[in-house]
Amino acid sequence: MTLMRYSKPNRNALDKNFSDIMDEFFNDVVNDQRGNFVPSIDISETENQFLITAELPGMNKDDITISLENSRLAISGERSFENEEKGKTFHRVETKYGSFERSFQLPDNVDEESISATYENGLLNISIDKSEDKVKKQIQIS
């Protein structure tokens, strides 16, 4: 089965019904209450590695911190809003800003010494090698 994202048909502003107007209103309210920036994260696995990709557009690598404590990998940082341009008035800002922290418990079969990270074009890529020494074993019942 293939999942496809639903997108509303593009309508003329005068062609909106009450339901569409209410959807827009509540989406704006929910988005404003959510507040802080929460980056999207993808986690995948190959035969030899775990791979984590975080979308962090508009950030510098100096604004990002990666830490490891008790087999918990944490990614944190802050995305700042620069509103210093004179003569520019913002009528709507939908981009999220603020501090964030995402953390993930690593499985037992990783080599914590092998963790490496790169940041390019707004994507943080973290790779973690698997360790064959720590592979879970199945226990036979007698």
What is the fold's blueprint, element by element?
Layout: H1 18-34, E1 41-45, E2 49-55, E3 64-69, E4 72-79, E5 98-105, E6 116-120, E7 123-129
Antiparallel strand pairs: 1-2, 2-7, 3-4, 4-5, 6-7
Descriptive overview:
Strand 1 and strand 2 (49-55) form a beta hairpin. It contains one helix and seven strands. The protein starts with 17 loop residues before the first helix and ends in a 13-residue tail after the last strand. The longest helix is centred in the first third of the chain and has 17 residues, at 18-34. The chain has a domain at 36-79 and 98-134: Immunoglobulin-like (Sandwich), CATH 2.60.40. The chain has one helix at 18-34; strands at residues 41-45, 49-55, 64-69, 72-79, 98-105, 116-120, 123-129. The strands form two sheets. Strands 1-2-7-6 form a four-stranded antiparallel beta sheet, with no helix packed on it. The protein has 142 residues and is mainly beta. Helices cover 12% and strands 32% of the residues. Residues 32-142 form the SHSP domain. This is Heat-shock protein Hsp20.
One letter per element, helices H and strands E, the order comes to HEEEEEEE
Helical residue percent band: 10-25%
Strand content: 25-35%
DSSP strand count: 7
Overall pLDDT metric:
79
Content-based structural category? mainly beta
Beginning-to-end CA distance, first to last residue: 42 Å
**Looking at CATH, which topology of the domain at 36-79 and 98-134 would you report?**
Immunoglobulin-like
InterPro entries: A-crystallin/Hsp20_dom, CS_dom, HSP20-like_chaperone, Small_HSP
Family: Belongs to the small heat shock protein (HSP20) family.
Domain SHSP: 32-142
Protein name: Heat-shock protein Hsp20
